[in-house]
Amino acid sequence: MMLIKTLLTTLFILLISMVTLSAQSKKKEILIKTKVYCDHCVKCESCKSRVENKVYELKGVRFVDMNPKNETIKVVYNPKTLSEQKIKEQINLTGYDADELKASQAQIAGLDDCCRK
Question: Do residues 28 and 72 touch, judged by C-beta distance below 8 A?
Fold first, then answer.
């Protein structure tokens, strides 16, 4: 009886470990370079919440953190449901560049005057 309990406990722990590892493998982390042109935004981080909220709208995003001082956006997402390209396009919608993908003039026009290039 004790042997059966030990085996069942071991099997349960293995099952939980496999599920945890499987869930972790569905995450990918990227660091996107952007450009913050406004000193005000670097100090008050007003662009931070705008960009983060827009990226969080995408299904599959697990975590977003924009660092205006370093001009980077860290995104953790599920690559099975979302592409890096789509994340960059979503960032562009806020008026900010995302690595090589530059925001259009129409997208930049949505920013406050002091934030535009």
Answer: no
- The domains of the chain are located at 27-115
Q: Is this structure's pTM higher than 0.85?
A: no
Residue 24 has pLDDT above 70, yes or no: no
* E strand residue ranges, 14-114: 28-33, 61-67, 72-77
HSE-up of residue 41 (Cα within 13 Å, Cβ side):
23
Architecture of the domain made up of 27-115: 2-Layer Sandwich (3.30)
Q: DSSP 3-state helix, strand, coil percentages of the chain (rounded to 5)?
A: 50, 20, 30
Q: What is the pLDDT of residues 57-72, one digit of tens each?
A: 999 999 999 999 999 9
